[in-house]
Amino acid sequence: MAEAVPSATRAELLARWYDLDLRDDPGDLDLYLALAARNGGPILELAAGSGRIAVALATAGHEVVGVDLDPAMLGRARAAWDRARGRSGRRGIGSLELVAADLLEVELGPRFGLVVLALNSLLLLGTAERQQAALAAMARHLRPDGRAVVDVWLPGPDDLALYDGRLLLEWERADEASGQRVAKLAAARHDPATAMVELTTIFDAWPPEGGMPNRVSRTDRLRLVGAAELQRMAEAAGLRVETLGGDHELTPFGPGAERAVLVAGLV
After folding, report:
1. CA–CA gap between residue 45 and residue 33 (Å, rounded)
2. Which residues make Cβ contacts (< 8 Å) with residue 110, sequence separation at least 6?
3. Cβ within 8 Å of residue 9, ≥6 positions away
4. DSSP letter at 62?
5. Would the pTM count as exceeding 0.90?
6. How far is Cα 216 from Cα 203, in angstroms, rounded to an integer?
């Protein structure tokens, strides 16, 4: 049986293991760097999390604002930004402001050249109404020549076949910062009638010499969104779809695409 983790540290551990999970590069950063170079700043990232994208954009010289509701994630983003500034000597580097707020309610003004909702964050909002509100939030923060970018995963039949409640080991790896071994397990159930997925993620951590693991977990309700619905949501929010890609290279969307990456400007 796993040892219980004190509730005060649960959010911090989940944020740490989230970063360990993303050790496998999602491959999206070059897309955002290219769009930032094309559209200019300032840049707004909604659901910025631990700062993987926001810190990289700021380090590349852009003025960036990152919004997230999770204080533990924002804490890791601040720490990552401090490290980036230290490595650069603060020469040729941009700026990063981190805002603790609900992305659906935040009001920062229509001043951004690029607004980003990356890596499945839209799915985590859980309902069509909240997802539509997220697109509206992106639109109201764009300046007239700005661009909004949304990226969502499109699971195929083989992916969804695994979403039957079985518990699967996704990886086991070392966490250099703590010296621990960490395993990620996940179990999901998919309801095709509602496009909902209930996803439970478990992280077990233990000393390399062995011993009782510390376990933290979280359960999320995701609502899957297809490419056609994503386009309709964007249009309903007052956005004009400029590009719909099937990957982070913006290869034109078509059969077999595993992602929908939408780039849009204001109507």
Report:
1. 13
2. 140, 141, 142, 143
3. none
4. -
5. yes
6. 5
**CATH homologous superfamily of 13-154+225-266:** Vaccinia Virus protein VP39 (3.40.50.150)
What is the DSSP annotation of 166-180? Answer: --EEEEEEEETTTTE
- Of the candidates 160, 170, 156, which has an alpha carbon nearest to the alpha carbon of residue 246? 156
What Rg do the C-alpha atoms of the chain give, in angstroms?
19
Q: What is the pLDDT of residues 216-261, one digit of tens each?
A: 999 999 999 999 999 999 999 999 999 999 999 999 999 999 999 9
Topology (CATH level 3) of domain 157-223: N-terminal domain of TfIIb (2.20.25)
**Are the C-beta atoms of 212 and 205 separated by less than 8 Å?**
no
Question: DSSP label at 39?
Answer: H
Q: In 10 A of CB 58, how many CB atoms?
A: 27
User: Where do we find the tokens 């969307």?
Assistant: 253
In order of 72, 181, 210, the CA distances from 174 in angstroms are: 21, 5, 13
